[in-house]
Design goal:
Shape of chain A: globular
Radius of gyration of chain A: 22 Å
Helix content of chain A: 25-40%
Largest sheet of chain A: 8 strands, mixed
Strand order of the largest sheet of chain A: 6-5-4-3-2-1-7-8
Strand order of the largest sheet of chain B: 2-3-1-4-5-6-7-8-9
Order of helices and strands of chain A: EHEEEEEEHEHHEEEHEEEHEHEEHHH
Shape of chain B: globular
Number of helices of chain B: 20
Number of strands of chain A: 17
Oligomer: heterodimer
Largest sheet of chain B: 9 strands, mixed
Helix content of chain B: 40-55%
């Protein structure tokens, strides 16, 4: 049986949720009834960016204080023949052998393409989004523009800058960090001047912010998409806000109850007209195409009950959106097996040096000559 | 070679009457008793942060905690003395040491023994000390008394092992501290160091809340406040890009905070309060003030709670040294930051240098105004805009286990103050129990209907040195003015609490004694109904009697 690795944690505000997703995946992979079950390596990425191998059977509270007891320090090298290796007494120790990695990181460098790029350079096969797919999913302005280009309905979304004219839609507005997962840093404001003022005080908006009209009457609808063995959509759910007075579905609603997203209150499948469901399904397939989706993603829509507006794409959703596959039921282990199968079958990178055959170098002459 | 050693051994044990087989059995029993006793006292050492001396202190506490344990202790000592002349009696001592004191388990209920590297080292050194005592016995020809004495003084041997290993542990932690210092320099956050006898954790979480979302803040996790803990917090939590690092600094003795500040120098230093906590380690409150004030030496900005006169003096001294000083108060509106509570206790008003910042701020119950004042001062020192500050004040989260009030489905109001361990906090908690909502009377008045119960469940407060008995007597006497029932948990402060409760003449307070907190909880579940209220004041881990 092959060895597989589950990667979770990372220097991200969603570190803790990622630990939950990773522990669920590791437990499911290690604990199933295959004879013998695959051996699972749990790779924990600390808040400060260090790597450790931990026991896949750990509970969430082992991570409360940081790196769990018994964790073994690892070195990661982003180079051919690199990847993960135990920290030897003298430099690099024994390399960790596994044939595919399941990335369970949410937010930050684990979901924005940084980790994916590093794994590509180390030639480690992994499940989930590619560098480009992850980067697009994390960029609300970029993914919004792709959605608009594909002709799909969405709320207007513009870049919020410290200078320039107000947008051509009226307030109230919702201000979101341009980059970042979950709903951390999102604020609802009455007018444009307030929105602009938030740029200076909300650090989540520092690397960019987008502005949309705030439409409290719209509700969330979410659907998961997976790309292996073929493109497939889950049931559609309507998450239920824990606190009805809260302006938007916030981070606490999503993640605070128990086991992460899988424990949040919801209506599943959502009771919606078949026309609307069809619209959501067609839009989701189109999004999978234009964003180069890979692995399992969750697409969030906003709806007034008739129309579905594309809101955002989560390329590595909480609990890997396992709870959405109810009709027909898809066991979590099957979902994980398929993700890992895709990791092995669809490589994420193929570098080529074709054409760099020395012609340019031979014709170049001296560098000083080029500068002169 | 082996023959020579055997010969030597025989020469050593020769005079020890070891041809008498019974003496050997005594030796075996004495050494065997060191096993369970060692585990038991190692667990206490672990709970008490491996501070040399603490194990013997706890052993003393346990052996006098109940008539049964007192009797066993006397029996063990007498049997040990008799065994010098007549070895077989030593077996009695061994038996008592192996199974006593009654109530202190080897495994532990609230906090089991954790076999960390440090504990393994300590166990090995303790075992070596037992062997040393044994060898001394063999050499002096008193093998069986030596084994009995070794069993009897296991707590002292564990203490000695703590003292011996302390410098080694310090050396071993050096690389982690160095890594932390390097990380701090690389990430280069503004360091806010918080200390105080109490209120550190609350103040730390208030600071983090007020600075977000404007700054990237990392606060040390609860109880990561000594050298190793702080280094671990930096190594494992201080991510790149962190702008403010809020570090809790604890101290059990002079020089400890100064040592922390050497490698984690604060930009802003905060002292929340001085109280009699950890008095038994410091001796006097003056020494506590001195130890805590080490935190301001390297800081350019100092935030002090000046309602305490000693800290007011310290503030003047710091100002004279050219530091920027922010004085915080809950009573003086002219202070740099003053947070005052409304008469009904549910709202706060905030003034900065006499200027109104906010009024009628709704805050979670149990919030200490001075802690919030210190946090506001830090936010102001870091340039948080006043308007932003007011907005953040409206959403202060409750501090876990700090006087959180919840209404159980049965209608019983539960006040959780189990993390509190100081007299000032306890007085606050009792005031809140007095205000606890009852079911409204039919005419809508919030009057407390007659017959409603107000219950206090507490093991009393510890680590108050010579003042411990007095403070617990006062606590129980104060309960008599507010509560209808007092449940005394455990034996640690039983006598002081009972005396205090009895000292109020004509008080209707009913006092019950229970062994463990879960028994008190069971009683509360069974006895209380809608409109009643219960205060859980402090909780002690199970290495306390």
């Amino acid at each position: 049986m092959p060895e597989v690795a589950v990667i979770f944690g990372g220097p991200s505000p969603e570190h803790d949720v990622s630990v939950l997703t990773g522990l669920q995946a590791a437990r499911a992979l290690a604990g199933r009834s295959d004879r013998p079950p695959p051996s699972v390596r749990s790779l924990f990425w600390s808040k400060t960016g260090e790597w450790y191998e931990v026991d896949p059977g750990l509970e969430a509270d082992s991570f409360l204080e940081g790196v769990p007891r018994g964790a073994v320090g690892l070195q990661f090298t982003a180079a051919p023949d690199g990847g993960f290796a135990e920290q030897g007494r003298r430099g690099r120790g024994k390399p960790l052998a596994f044939d595919a990695a399941l990335v369970c990181c949410h937010g930050g460098p684990g979901e924005d393409g940084t980790l994916q790029a590093a794994l590509d350079l180390a030639a480690v096969p992994y499940a989930g989004p590619t560098v480009a797919g992850a980067a697009i999913g994390m960029d609300k302005l970029g993914s919004g523009a792709l959605v608009a280009t594909a002709g799909l309905p969405a709320l207007p979304r513009v870049l919020l800058r410290p200078v320039g004219d107000p947008p051509d839609f009226p307030g109230p507005y919702i201000v979101k960090p341009r980059f970042g997962g979950s709903s951390i840093g999102i604020e609802v404001v009455e007018d444009f001047a307030t929105a602009r003022a938030r740029l200076a005080v909300n650090r989540h908006l520092r690397s960019g912010a987008v502005l949309e009209p705030y439409r409290p009457e719209l509700t969330d609808l979410q659907v998961a998409v997976r790309t292996w063995p073929q493109l497939e959509l889950s049931a559609i759910e309507r998450p239920i806000r824990a606190d009805t007075s809260s302006d938007i579905l916030d981070y606490r609603d999503k993640y605070v109850p128990g086991e992460g997203m899988a424990g949040a209150p919801r209506e599943l499948p959502a009771d919606i007209p078949s026309e609307l469901e069809k619209e959501i399904r067609q839009a989701s397939e189109r999004i999978a195409d234009v964003t180069g989706m890979r692995g399992v993603a969750r697409i969030d829509f906003l709806s007034d009950g008739r129309e579905a507006l594309v809101n955002e794409i989560n390329t590595i959703p909480g609990s890997l959106a396992r709870y959405l596959w109810v009709n027909p039921p898809l066991p979590f282990t099957t979902l994980l097996d398929d993700l890992l199968a895709e990791a092995r079958a669809r490589p994420t990178h193929a570098y080529s040096a074709e054409g760099a055959d020395g012609t340019v170098l031979r014709a170049a002459g001296s560098i000083a000559g080029k500068l002169g | 070679m082996i023959g020579e050693a055997a010969h030597l051994l025989l020469a050593l044990v020769g005079p020890a009457r070891l041809h008498d087989g019974v003496a050997w059995i005594t030796v075996a029993c004495g050494l065997a008793a060191c096993g369970p006793a060692g585990l038991r006292w190692l667990r206490v050492a672990q709970r008490e942060h491996y501070l040399a001396g603490s194990v013997s202190r706890f052993a003393g506490r346990w052996w006098v905690s109940s008539p049964g344990n007192k009797g066993l202790a006397v029996l063990a000592v007498v049997a040990a003395m008799v065994s010098v002349g007549w070895p077989p009696v030593g077996v009695v001592t061994a038996g008592v040491v192996a199974f006593g004191p009654l109530g202190l388990t080897v495994r532990g209920r609230t906090a089991p023994l954790v076999w960390t590297r440090r504990l393994r080292t300590l166990a090995a050194v303790s075992a070596a000390l037992v062997i040393l005592v044994m060898v001394a016995g063999l050499v002096s020809g008193l093998a069986s008394p030596a084994a009995v004495v070794a069993a009897l003084i296991v707590p002292a041997l564990v203490d000695l092992a703590c003292a011996v290993t302390a410098p080694i542990e310090h050396r071993l932690s050096e690389p982690f501290v160095e890594a932390a210092a390097a990380r701090l320099q690389r990430v280069d956050p503004c360091v806010v160091a918080v200390t105080g006898s109490y209120g550190k954790t609350s103040t730390k979480s208030h600071i983090a809340h007020l600075l977000r979302p404007g700054r990237t803040v990392v606060a040390t996790p609860a109880s990561f406040n000594n050298r190793v803990g702080l280094a671990r917090a930096v190594n494992e939590h201080l991510a790149e890009g962190t702008e403010v690092f809020v570090a809790e600094m604890g101290t059990y003795g002079a020089g400890e905070i100064a040592d922390l500040c050497r490698w984690c120098p604060p930009d802003i230093a905060v002292i929340t309060a001085i109280g009699p906590v950890h008095l038994e380690r410091f001796g006097t409150e003056e020494r506590i003030v001195e130890a805590k004030s080490e935190i301001i030496d390297r800081a350019a900005t100092v935030v002090l709670q000046v309602d305490d006169k000693r800290l007011a003096v310290l503030a003047d001294r710091a100002a004279a040294d050219g530091k920027r000083v922010l004085r915080c108060s809950a009573v003086d509106p002219a202070a740099d930051v003053c947070v005052e509570r409304s008469p009904d206790g549910t709202r706060l008003s905030v003034h900065t240098v006499g200027r109104r910042l906010a009024d009628g701020v709704r805050v979670p119950s149990g919030l200490q105004p001075t802690n919030l004042a210190c946090a506001i001062a830090v936010a102001l020192a870091l340039g948080v805009e006043r308007g932003e500050l007011v907005a953040r004040l409206g959403h202060l989260p409750a501090v876990e286990h700090r006087l959180e009030a919840v209404r159980a489905p049965t209608g019983v109001t539960i006040l959780d103050d189990t993390y509190n361990a100081n007299p000032a906090g306890a007085a606050e908690a009792l005031a809140m129990l007095d205000r606890a909502p009852a079911d409204r009377a039919p005419d809508g008045s919030p009057e407390r209907p007659a017959g409603r119960r107000r219950v206090v469940v507490t093991p009393g407060m510890v680590e108050l040195g010579r003042r411990q008995a007095e403070e617990n007597r006062r606590l129980a006497a104060a309960c008599a003015g507010v509560a209808t029932d007092l449940l005394v948990v455990g034996r640690t402060n039983r006598r002081a609490l009972m005396t205090g409760a009895a000292s109020v003449p004509g008080s209707p307070l009913r006092v019950r004694r229970v062994g463990r907190r879960d028994q008190a909880v069971a009683w509360v579940r069974q006895s209380l109904g809608s409109g009643d209220a219960v205060l859980y004041e402090n909780d002690l881990p199970d290495h306390y009697p």
